[in-house]
Design a protein that fits this description.
By secondary structure, this protein is of the alpha+beta class. The protein has two domains: 12-134, Ribosomal protein S10 (Alpha-Beta Plaits, 2-Layer Sandwich), CATH 3.30.70.600; 178-341, Four Helix Bundle (Hemerythrin (Met), subunit A) (Up-down Bundle), CATH 1.20.120. The protein is built from eight helices and four strands; from the N terminus they run E-H-E-E-H-E-H-H-H-H-H-H. A four-stranded antiparallel beta sheet has the order 2-3-1-4. The relative contact order is 0.11.
């Protein structure tokens, strides 16, 4: 029979409210971000979709969004995350996973707003729900119960005999290694989300630059010599932006793959999956680059005709292709981050 103070506690089951989240949208606006009824409805649906996708991608199918609301007057988004039943293996690891989820939602929302407003910034604030607080307190009560049992003379004698050998140094060393390993994994998970968001930002800048060139030069009456000069200057600037984009976007996911395979931060099965995701991410990134290139050649490299109606068709097609490829790329990045965010 196992002594009472040596028994392992049962895993804690979480039910009900997991956390509540409040996102505030700030930036340079003339009025509220969502000042009209139509804009409010469209933006509400888009934001709700982002949150639902993030919950499924970052937390899993055991969680759902509740009490979602877009507060137009204050430009705020509020919602709660609930679960019917979820086993919490580690309170600290679970809370770190929630922090990663909130960061992913904030970054995705900023990306959405950048397509509609200028200089939009999203600030987040969140807090754990009562059931999760209760689990934390129950964990503290368990520790107190163990300490009370250890105060018994027989328990002290038995425990002193066991721990007086090499067990304490071994456990301390193992605990320190596991803690450092988990901290490094969390750093990689946050880095993946941040790098993917940075790639989104640079892709948006490239696409917006080409679209603005089209808007600034849509009149056939513009002198051809002036148009060619504008095109040459724009091409030079765009090439510099593109070189900066490739220097960031095409390398970081392969670095993560190398870290996973060459270090002890990932298990063999995790390393294999990360390698597969890195290839998938590279393919999706190539599709994003191809979408931008659809405008690069006709607008800046080749002879540009401002009056060609096909120009606007190309912009629509390129934007739709970029949106599809970007969604797939972000899904792969989130799955990669979840691997490292797990204990």
């Amino acid at each position: 029979m196992t002594a009472h103070f040596l028994r392992r506690p049962k895993h804690n089951v979480l039910r009900g409210e997991v956390c509540s989240v409040r996102l505030r949208i700030v930036g340079k606006f003339n009025n509220s971000v969502v000042s009209t009824t139509d804009a409010s409805s469209e933006l509400r649906d888009a934001i709700a979709g982002i949150i639902r996708d993030s919950v499924r991608g970052s937390l899993g199918p055991d969680f759902e969004v509740a009490d979602f609301a877009l507060l137009c007057q204050n430009s705020e988004v509020v919602f709660r995350i609930n679960t019917g039943s979820y086993v919490v293996q580690s309170y600290d690891s679970f809370v770190k996973g929630l922090k990663l989820f909130v960061a992913q939602v904030r970054n995705s929302l900023e990306l959405l707003l950048q397509t509609r407003f200028e200089h939009a910034v999203v600030k987040s604030r969140w807090c754990v729900g009562p059931p999760l607080v209760r689990l934390q307190l129950e964990g503290s009560d368990t520790k107190a119960s163990v300490l009370k049992s250890l105060q018994q003379p027989l328990s002290v004698l038995l425990l002193g005999t066991i721990l007086g050998s090499a067990l304490i140094p071994y456990l301390n060393e193992r605990s320190n290694r596991n803690k450092l390993r988990h901290e490094e994994r969390i750093k990689i998970a946050f880095s993946i989300v941040e790098q993917s968001h940075e790639t989104d930002r640079r892709l948006s800048n490239l696409m917006n630059y080409l679209v603005l060139f089209r808007k600034d030069h849509n009149n056939r009456s513009e002198p051809e010599s002036a148009l060619k000069k504008e095109q040459r200057d724009a091409l030079k600037t765009f090439n510099e932006m593109y070189m900066s984009y490739t220097g960031q976007a095409w390398w970081w996911h392969w670095t993560v793959k190398s870290e996973a395979s060459l270090s002890a931060l990932a298990t063999p099965s995790e390393s294999k999956r990360v390698a597969e995701l890195a290839r998938d991410y590279s393919d999706a990134l190539g599709q994003c680059t191809d979408a931008v290139s659809r405008l690069w050649d006709p607008f800046l490299k080749n002879r540009y005709d401002p009056g060609d109606p096909q120009n606007d068709v190309l912009i629509t097609q390129a934007s739709e292709s970029l949106t599809r490829a970007r969604k797939r790329r972000n899904e792969v990045a989130v799955e990669m981050a979840r691997i490292f965010a797990s204990k």
